[in-house]
Known about the structure:
Catalytic activity: lipid IVA (E. coli) + CMP-3-deoxy-beta-D-manno-octulosonate = alpha-Kdo-(2->6)-lipid IVA (E. coli) + CMP + H(+)
Oligomer: single chain
Distance between the termini: 45 Å
Number of domains: 2
Keywords: Cell membrane, Lipopolysaccharide biosynthesis, Membrane, Transferase
Function: Involved in lipopolysaccharide (LPS) biosynthesis. Catalyzes the transfer of 3-deoxy-D-manno-octulosonate (Kdo) residue(s) from CMP-Kdo to lipid IV(A), the tetraacyldisaccharide-1,4'-bisphosphate precursor of lipid A.
Shape: globular
Subcellular location: Cell membrane
Main location: membrane
Number of helices: 18
Helix content: 40-55%
CATH class of the largest domain: Alpha Beta
CATH superfamily of the largest domain: 3-Deoxy-D-manno-octulosonic-acid transferase, N-terminal domain
Amino acid sequence: MPFSFFSPHVQQRIWPSRVSLPTKKGPLIWIHALSLGEVLSVFPLVDLLMEKRPDMQIFFTVSTRSGMDAAMDSLAQKVADIRYFPLDHPLAVNRMLKDVEPDVFILVETDVWPFFMRAIQKRNIPSLYVNARISQKTFAGYRRLAPVMGPALKAFHSVFPQSSVDAERLLALGLDPRVLEACGNMKHDRSLPDPEQSALDPVRTLIGRQSPSFVWVCGSIHPGEEQVVAEALRHRALEGRKILTFLVPRHPDKAVQFCESLQSMGLDACLLSSLPKDNQRIVVVDCMGILKDLYGLGQAALVGGSFLPLRGHNPLEPAMAGIPVVMGPGTEDFHESWQGLCEIGAGFPLKDGASLAARILFWMDHPEERTRAGLAGKSFVMRGRGTTLRIFQRICSLSGGSWC
């Protein structure tokens, strides 16, 4: 194979294998979600589309391996096919578009490609950009490439920005204001956590046997951030406290690395898949797909990607579980959501392990404040619901109402 020196997923992007979809009974929608976070955010839309039009086919693409893992794990039984998005080159793009021939294309959050947008525009395929997010870094890059990115953005029929900041940046990049829809975030529309799901049986058993004073979940953690968690747990303020910690790596294949790192710092950590004893105090989750529901068993949460220059991950998931949330300084990708949680006393920005230890101690000693913060966060999430339905209604209008 001419591209065999590339990894398999890159090979699929350079020269996609042929797509053979079942004979169309209803509309065919192509949804593209860049990576893990984008895949998770589009679950509500996929579920709503299948609920309203069971005969609808969804062709789903991703650009990363973590995105593929998440899509295969949660969407394989709901969509017609899941593939890697083609490289933005005429050969790859035209090859896939010829096979798929979608009735509508939907881009989730980010990953705008100029040639692809020009190709679907030439084919008169309606396109929507939903949960649109333009970070400061992306904004600067798109401005430098204005001659190609401007027309790419103008190819969309409707754009649903996550926030007013994203809307302003899109307009500054040349988006036609007539296609700009009201701001909103589909992440508010995700299903509520289900702490009773069977995959959490070992977790519930462990909590029942230990009866810890405090259970918290550190979600979407990247290598290096476990040092902040370790600093907090080893702080003298928490000595003698019966705390049970669940650490969930952003990428499950890093679980062993996290376990070894925590052990090297003198902490008793083990993998969820191999719990050796009932008094384990730090459990590293080495499977995918349970984080949202695991938050439902915690009393507080730390959201990762925020103590490193990674712009943070989704604080709405733990807030939806009704528990208070802490994050580090890096929250750019969720700035408006995080700011909203902080303003109502449901989100708490921290800078290091010492401040994290102090916050845990406060919540242990003041459970009523912890409960109040959690309820405020859940209320914030619930008030933001409805974006997914508005997107569905716009999809219907593109068909002249014939799909709905």
